[in-house]
Amino acid sequence: MKQPITLYTQISNLLTTIGNPVRVQILLAIGTGEACVCHLESLLELRQAYISQQLMILRKQKIINSRREGKYVYYQLLNPEIVGIIQKAGEIAGVQDDTLAIQNPSNCKCPKCKMEENITSRNSSDRGKE
Ligand SMILES: [Zn+2]
C-alpha cells in the first residue's frame, strides 16, 4: 500500500526548516545552551529583525521553544537531537566536526555572557593572588 504523502511531507518540512545556513547556525548555537536574540545577533552578526524571523520559523515548526525572563526572551531546543542531525549532515558533507564548535562572541552584553565574563575575571583575579 502506498504511504500517505503527509508522512513524507512531515519529514520534508523538518528538513526544509533546518536546511538554511542561518538556521543551522542558530540551532548549533542554541544546542550549547539557551540564548537570547541579542546573543545570536552578536554571534551571527546579522540584523535582529532577520534573526527573529528565523527564530519564528523554527518555533512554528516546534523545533525551538522560548521563555521570558525579565526583558529577555531565551530560546532553547525542544528536541536536542536536532543537533545530532546537523552534525551528521555536516559529517556527510565533509565538514570537520571541530569547525562547528560555537564560541561565545566577545562583544556580547547579554546576561548570560556577562555572567560568564564575571566568572572568568573572578578566576583570573584569584590566580593573581596566588
Ligand atoms: Zn551573549
From TrEMBL:
What organism is this sequence from? Answer: Candidatus Desulfolinea nitratireducens
Query: Where is each HTH arsR-type domain found?
Result: 3-97
Keyword DNA-binding in record: yes
Keywords per UniProt: DNA-binding, Transcription, Transcription regulation
PROSITE patterns per the UniProt record, alphabetical: HTH_ARSR_2
Single GO term (MF): DNA binding
Protein name as annotated: Winged helix-turn-helix transcriptional regulator
Q: Which Gene3D superfamilies match?
A: Winged helix-like DNA-binding domain superfamily/Winged helix DNA-binding domain
Q: Which InterPro entries match?
A: ArsR-like_HTH (IPR011991), HTH_ArsR_DNA-bd_dom (IPR001845), Metal_resp_trans_reg (IPR051011), WH-like_DNA-bd_sf (IPR036388), WH_DNA-bd_sf (IPR036390)
Membrane-spanning segments: none
- Lineage of source species: Bacteria, Bacillati, Chloroflexota, Anaerolineae, Anaerolineales
